[in-house]
């Protein structure tokens, strides 16, 4: 239970953007003993930092740019998923959209793959 705090806004972000945010916090506030504001990182925080470091495939700027370009074809949430996973072929891309509503034609999916190829 969080008293006095409420969610004001939510916005999906890519793993690359999450990495950038986390690394700024770590670099700005961490001291030599791996403490932020006098507290050790929690187990969950360390896992999260490790995860985003391993799975961020693009820089945060490139990820933001690619999401904005993909929004021409899909919703923001779908664009974030695609950027996080960076599928390499039509089958992988179709798997991402398998449970989504709507039907994507092959031409649209190929356009998405072409955009992704520009950022690999």
Secondary structure blueprint with pairings:
Layout: H1 15-29, E1 35-36, E2 39-40, H2 43-55, H3 60-70, H4 76-85, H5 90-96, H6 106-118
Antiparallel strand pairs: 1-2
Helix pairs in contact: 1-2, 1-3, 3-4
Portion in helices: 55-70%
> Oligomeric state of the chains?
single chain
Measured distance between first and last alpha carbons: 42 Å
> Using only CA atoms, what is the Rg?
17 Å
Keyphrases for this structure?
120 residues; mainly alpha; DNA polymerase, domain 1; two-stranded antiparallel sheet; elongated
What does this structure look like?
The chain has six helices and two strands. The protein has a two-stranded antiparallel ribbon. A hairpin with a 2-residue loop joins β1 and β2. α1 packs across α2, α1 packs antiparallel against α3 and α3 packs across α4. The termini are far apart. The model has no long low-confidence stretch (mean pLDDT 87).
Summarize the structure.
The protein has 120 residues and is mostly helical. The chain is 57% helix and 3% strand.
